[in-house]
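Here is one such tokenized protein:
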Amino acid sequence: MKLFLYSAFLCSIVILSGTEASAQKGVDNQTQKIREESRTNPRSSDATRSFDWGEGKTPTREPLPNPYRMASRRDMLMDNIRLAIEERKLVIDEASSRPLEGIIVTQPFVFGRGPLVAQSELKRYARLEFGDNAWSRGQYTLTIEVQSIDGIHNNVFVNAKIEGRGGSGLTTEWITLQSSGVAEEEFLVKLVELVTGVSPNPITVIDN
């Protein structure tokens, strides 16, 4: 009888041990599977995720048309042109201007002094064709012309005369350069803001 009970006890221990081992083995397999899936299918976190806005798409601002068509009474437009000149820190050349004909000319505005600043600013405002010149100063003069279309519509044309003070030898002189359009654009943007109360911002997306 004792031998029978002892044998039954040993069998139960073996069965329980096998069940526990199987259960433990199942947990290990599941954990291993999760780890393997994590390695083969990594999930990007918010900190490392990148966003694709599309290849070849660059936001750019188109230049304003020059001449620029504006809806405004001529007298009010001329007042706004004077205000734009003042806010751009320019000065009207009264001797050269003809307001009754819709023409206003500014005095030369110096935008760069010193070799480094002059060279950098001239590259913005002009198309440099004199690579061997030592530039020491840059300036521009604006001519603004208003051409009436009817009682409330006008074309505003802005022309910039760009000059650089430079030379390749012992002498320096003012050299007229081709405008890049930046000076005209800056003035037109300010004028549109004053006339319409809204900053022009024609943002488009173009293919590179």
The CA atoms of residues 39 and 68 lie 61 Å apart. The two ends are 95 Å apart (CA to CA). Confidence is low (pLDDT under 50) at residues 19-27, 37-59.
